[in-house]
C-alpha cells in the first residue's frame, strides 16, 4: 500500500492537512513514528568485477553502488592526493518519475551530496592513494544506481557508497624505476578514516519526519539532508526542496540527525564488520 | 481436450485447449488451438477458456466505481487521473447550464460510463466530490477483498473505525473520519487487508486491529 | 595479452565445463517494488535486473499510435559491470542491443491489446561475464510475464560460440573475447521460432546448424527454469481471482 500517488504536477489537496493531523498524534502514514527509520539492509561485495560494491535497502528504496579503480593524474593543485568522483543515476525502472537519458538535476544533486559527505568528512585518506607524487595516483570512481525508489534516495546512496568503500579493495601498484606496475594478485584495503552517514528529514508544518516517504517528500515544506562524520561533527548540509526553513527547525533537525546518525552508523558497522 | 489443471499457473504460450472451444480473456487462438497470452489461472466458464491474470493492473470496465484526482481542465473535458498512468475524462453534458464545480487537484468518486479504444469516460451522474480524506493506493487485485462479499468487509471497516470509505475499483481508496486517530486505524486496517488478503481469518484480525487502535482513544500523542 | 587455451586435452573449457554445458543459472521474479513487473537473473558471472513499466500513457503524446501500443527497450550496463570502467551515457553497442532486443520482444507481444499506450522494458546489467543480451532478454521476458503484458510466448535465449575449433554453449567473457565466433540466439519455445539471431565471427553452415540445435536444447531447459521462477513467485493463492 502507498499513500497518495506518485509525483504529479498538481498537489493532492485533500492529503496535506490529513497527513499533518496524523503527525500531530505522533503517527505517520506507514505507521512509523516521526523519528523512526525504515528497515536498513546492507549487502556488500555483490559485484565481483567492481573493486567495491554494496546493495542497500532503506525500506523499499534500493540503491546499488559500485567502485572502479584506475590510475591517473592528480589534480594540479593537489599533487599529493588521490582522486575520487561520485556519479549517481536515477534508473528509469526505479520510478515512473525517472526518465531515461543523461543525469538530470536530481541525479546530479544526489551525486554531489554523496560526494560532499565523503569529501568533507575526509572519509577517504587521499594522501595514501599517491603512487608518484604529482604524476600518478589512484582514481576511485564511485557510481550509485537507484534501482527502486520509495523516498529518501539520499541516505540510501550515502550508505551504499560508504559500505562499498569500507568493503572494497584496491589493486596494488609498485613503483619501479619511475614506472607504475601492477602487482598481480595483490590487493589492499581502501584507506579510510571515518565512515560518514547522512540523515534526511522533511519538515511538515512544525513536525519533522525522519527518512521520508515519497508522499511526505511531496507534501513537505522542505527537505534537509545532513551528513555527519564519526566524530559527530556535521560535514555536509543540503536543503533540497523549495520552501521555508525556520532557523529553529533547522536547529532541531541538526540535534535529531546527530542522534539518528548513531543508529545508522551502528547498522553500517554491523553489516561491514569491524575489521572490514 | 483441456491441457491444464484447475490450480496450475499457466504462462504465455502454454497450450490450453484444442478441438474448437471458444476462447476468452487472456488467451489467443493459433491453428485452431487455444494458448494462454497472460500469466494466471486458466478456467473454463460456460464453455469459454479464459485466463485470470495474476498481475493486478487495473483495466476499466463499464459500471466500475473509481476514485480519481482531477489533473487538467480543458475546454471540452475534465481530465481525471485514475491510477497515475491512466486518465479518464468527464465531459460536460450539453444539457447542463452550470459547469461542473471542479478544480484541479480535487478528488472525485465516479462511475465508468464507457471505456475502449478511444479512452475512458466517467459519468457525470452520481459524481461525488470528496473534499477531505486520506488517499490510499492499493493493488487493484486486492480491491474485491477490501470490499468483501456483498460489501461485508467495507461495512465492518466503516462500523469499527467510524470512518467514511470511498473504494475505487482502480485501487484508490479515500478514508475520512471524525479524528486522525480513527483515520489512522482505518489506514492500518487497509494495510493489513492488502498484506494478508490470502490468509484465512482475515475478518477477525481486522476487527481486532480496529478495536485495539480505536480503544487507545483519540488525541493521544 | 596472451590468448589462453580455451579447450584442454580433456575437451573441457577454461572454466571446467563440457562444450554443451550451461553455466549455473538463477532466476527470481518480482524483485523490484516500483515496476509493474520485474526479474533478476544470474548466468555464471553475468547478473542482470529487468523491469517493466506499463502499459501506460505515451510520452510525448504525439508518438502514440491509435491502433496499437509501443514497446520501448533500454539495454544499459552499469559502469562497474565490466573490467574497464564503462563511462556514463549510452554507448553505440548499448543502442544497437536496445534495438535488437526490442524487436525480438515485439515479435511476441500483442501490441494491439494496448492501443495509445506504451510498455517500457529496462534491462540493467550490473555485472557482465558474457551473454548479457541473451540473459537480458530471458529476464525481460519474465518481467513482461510478471507485469501481465499479453504475449504469444515467452522468450528464452543463449549464445553458442566456437572456441579452438569446438562449438560451445553459453560462452563466458573470456571465450567471447578470444574465440572464433559467437552466435546469440533467442527463441519463442512454444512457437519453435527464432526471434533474435546474430553472428559475430566465422562459422560454416554445418556449424551454424549444429549450433542452433545446441541452442534449442539449452533454450528448452532455460524456459523450464522460467516456468519454475514464475510458479514460485505466485505460489500463494493469488487474490482477486474471483471469476
UniProtKB/TrEMBL annotation, chain A:
Its main location: cytoplasm. GO terms for cellular component: cytoplasmic exosome (RNase complex). It holds the Pfam family RNase_PH_C. InterPro entries: ExoRNase_PH_dom1, ExoRNase_PH_dom2, ExoRNase_PH_dom2_sf, Exosome_comp_Rrp42_subfam, PNPase/RNase_PH_dom_sf, Ribosomal_Su5_D2-typ_SF, Rrp42_archaea. Component of the archaeal exosome complex. Forms a hexameric ring-like arrangement composed of 3 Rrp41-Rrp42 heterodimers. The hexameric ring associates with a trimer of Rrp4 and/or Csl4 subunits. Residues 36-169, 194-258 form the Exoribonuclease phosphorolytic domain. The keyword Cytoplasm applies. One of its GO terms (molecular function) is mRNA 3'-UTR AU-rich region binding. It comes from Caldiarchaeum subterraneum. The gene is rrp42. This is Exosome complex component Rrp42. Gene3D superfamilies: GHMP Kinase, N-terminal domain (3.30.230.70).
UniProtKB/TrEMBL annotation, chain B:
The keyword Magnesium does not apply. One of its GO terms (molecular function) is RNA binding. Keywords: Exosome, RNA-binding. It holds the Pfam family KH_1. GO terms for cellular component: exosome (RNase complex). InterPro entries: Exosome_RNA_bind1/RRP40/RRP4 (IPR026699), KH_dom (IPR004087), KH_dom_type_1 (IPR004088), KH_dom_type_1_sf (IPR036612), NA-bd_OB-fold (IPR012340), RRP4_N (IPR054371). PROSITE patterns: KH_TYPE_1 (PS50084). The keyword Amino-acid biosynthesis does not apply. Residues 130-195 form the K Homology domain. GO terms for biological process: CUT catabolic process; exonucleolytic trimming to generate mature 3'-end of 5.8S rRNA from tricistronic rRNA transcript (SSU-rRNA, 5.8S rRNA, LSU-rRNA); poly(A)-dependent snoRNA 3'-end processing; U4 snRNA 3'-end processing. PANTHER family: EXOSOME COMPLEX COMPONENT RRP4, PNAS-3 RELATED. This is RNA-binding protein. It comes from Caldiarchaeum subterraneum.
